[in-house]
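Worked example (supplementary).
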Amino acid sequence: MIRNTVKRQLFTLFLTLTIGVSLYAQNTNKSKPIVIEDQGSFTVGGTVIKESGTFDPIKHGAFNPADQVSEGQTLHGDHAYVFYQVPKKAKKLPLVFWHGYGQYSKTWETTPDGREGFQNIFLRKKYPVYLIDQPRRGRAARSTVPGVISAKPDDQLWFGIFRLGTSSEFYPNVQFPKDPKALDQFFRQITPDTGPIDFEVNTEAISALFDKIGDGILVTHSHSGGQGWLTALKNSNIKGIVSYEPGSNFLFPEGNVPDPISYVGGTLRALEVPQEDFLRLTKIPIIIYYGDFIPTEPVENPGQEQWRAALSMAKLWRDAVNQAGGDVTLIHLPEIGIKGNTHFPFSDLNNLEIAELMAEWLKEKRLD
Amino acid sequence: MIRNTVKRQLFTLFLTLTIGVSLYAQNTNKSKPIVIEDQGSFTVGGTVIKESGTFDPIKHGAFNPADQVSEGQTLHGDHAYVFYQVPKKAKKLPLVFWHGYGQYSKTWETTPDGREGFQNIFLRKKYPVYLIDQPRRGRAARSTVPGVISAKPDDQLWFGIFRLGTSSEFYPNVQFPKDPKALDQFFRQITPDTGPIDFEVNTEAISALFDKIGDGILVTHSHSGGQGWLTALKNSNIKGIVSYEPGSNFLFPEGNVPDPISYVGGTLRALEVPQEDFLRLTKIPIIIYYGDFIPTEPVENPGQEQWRAALSMAKLWRDAVNQAGGDVTLIHLPEIGIKGNTHFPFSDLNNLEIAELMAEWLKEKRLD
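After joint prediction of all chains, the assembly is encoded as:
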C-alpha cells in the first residue's frame, strides 16, 4: 500500500516534470509558423439515391425551390467531409479526429476562448491531422434521408451534460474560461443533425477514409467513442485509438455482456458483438480519458449521472479487453492529479497538458 | 475598328504572356510548402433565442432526444462560421470567400478532381484567406428557426444550372474534369439549408466578420453576389469585391430600377435601394466574372436561360454604378478568349488562369 502510494507520487512527479518541460517548449513555440506540406479537403464514403422516372432538362431544369421536381434525378449523400493538413517533416501516422454528438470538426480547432486546439497543437508536433464532419453533420450535411431541424433551445442541457456546471453555474475550479464570450462561442459549436444518426453509415464512411489514407490513429470524442470501436472492427488500418470520454456503445463479446447500468435519466447498455470481432479490439493499443466532476456514487443531477455510468462501463470494458489480451489504458484525469476538466479536455484551459499526455502515450506505443 | 482589333489582340497576347509566365511560376511552386503564421476558426454574428419558463437541471437535465424539454433554455444560432489562415509575410488585406446557393466553404478548397482551389492558391500568393459558411449552412447549421431537410434528389438540376452541361451530358470543351470521381465529389459539395435563407441574418453576420477583422476584400459566388453588395452597404471595411457569376439581387437606386428580365423558368428582378445606399457601391472597386455557355438570345434550356438574364442584368448594373462614378469591371470570360468555364470558374480545370486574372486586378486596384 505504502509502496503503491510512493510509486504513484513518483509517477506524478515524473509526469509533472516531463509535462512542465514540454509545456515550456510548446509555449515558446506558440508563435512559430506551421509549415504545411499539403492541405486540402474531400468527401469520402456515402451513397447515391435515385428517384424513379426520367429527368427532362427542359421541363425540369428550372430552379423552383418551393416545388422542385425530382423525377429521374440522383442525390449523392451520406458521405463524411474531411479537411487535412500535412506538416513538413511529418510523422508517418496521421491523427484522424472525430467529433461527438451535436458537434462537428470545430471540436478540435480553436478553443472557445481563442487558444490553439488539438488541430494546431498536433500539427506543431508534426502529425498529419485529419478533421472529420461525420455524415449528416456540418459540412457533410447532404443526407439521403429527410430530417427536421427543430431549433428547440437546449444550451443549458448541454452545459450540464458537457460538465461545465449546473444550469448556468460553473463548477468551482472548472477548466473552462469564464469570459462570457467563450461560453457564447462554445454554445455555437453545437450543431444539429440533418438526418437520422446511422452508425452503419458513419462507420462505413470513416472506414472508407482509412481505406483511402492507409494506416492512422483514430481520435474520438464522446458519441464517436463507441462508433470508433465499431469502425476498428471494420478496418485494420486503424493502428491505435485515443478516446476522450466515450459515452456509449462499449462492445463486449457474446455471452460476456455486463448488466446495463441505470442512472438518473437513462440506462447504459453494452453492445454485444461476436467473440471474433471483439478480439480485433485486443490487437491495437487504446487509451481512454475522462475528466472531472464524475461522481462515484449516484447523484440527482442527470448531467453528471450519465458519466458515472459511462466511466463504470468503461472500466468493465477495459478489463474485458485486457483480459482477452488487449492493451487498453483508462485515465481518469483527477486520479493523476489533473483536475477541473469538462467533457472537452482537449479544449479546456489545460489542453496543452492534456495534449502532452496523449503525445507521451503515442510515443510509448510507438505510434509517433 | 482595325485599331480596336489590333489593340484587343495585343491585350490578349499580353494576357497570355503574363499568365503564361505566372502559371509557370505557380506550377513550379505547387509542391512548395505553405508557411502558416496563424490559423484558426470562430463563429461570428448570430443571435440568442430563449424559451419561456425556468430550466431545472435536475428535472430537465437528462438527454432525451425524442422529447427534449426546452423550458427556460437558450439557443445560440444564426452565426456564420469562419476558418482563417494567415501565411507568413502576408499582404495587408485578407480575402474573405463567401460560397453560393446550396454550397459551403468547400467551393474554395480542393477542386473536385483534387487540384488546389482558391484557398491554397491565394495563400501561396500571400493573402490571408478567410472561408465562410453562411448562417444555416455547413458548419454554421445551428438555426434559430426550424427547417426541413427534404433529401429530394436534384443533382441533375444543378448539373444544368451550374453549366457543366445538360442532363448528364457535358458541354463540349467544358473546363470540368471528365473523371466520374470528380463529378461524384462535385455533387457532394451540394449541401442543404438548415433553416430559411435570410439575407438580413446573413449580411449581418458577414458585416460582423468585417467589424472583427477590419479592412478586407470580399469574394462572392452566385447567390452571395447580391448579398455581397448588401453587405458592402453595411460595412465600409469591405475595400473591394470580386464576384463570380452573381445571379440575383443587383441593387439599383430608387427611380432608376430596370425592368425585370424574363427567362425560361423565372423572372429576374432588380432590388431597389435608396440613392444614398446605392452610391456606397461607387466607392469601392468591383469586378464581376462570368464563364461560358451563356446564350445571348433566349434558348429553351432553363439552366442556361437563368444566366442569360443574370449577365444582362449585370451589364445594366455595371453601367448604372459606373455612370454614378463607380468602378465596376465586368469580364465575360469567353470574350477575352477564356472558354469552357462553368458556373465555378475558380475550381475549373483552368483555375490557375482564373486566379491570375483576379490577382492582376487586385494589383491594379492596389488591393494587394
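Two points are worth noting when inspecting this output. The first strand of chain A starts at residue 34 and ends at 50. The two ends of chain A are 35 Å apart (CA to CA).
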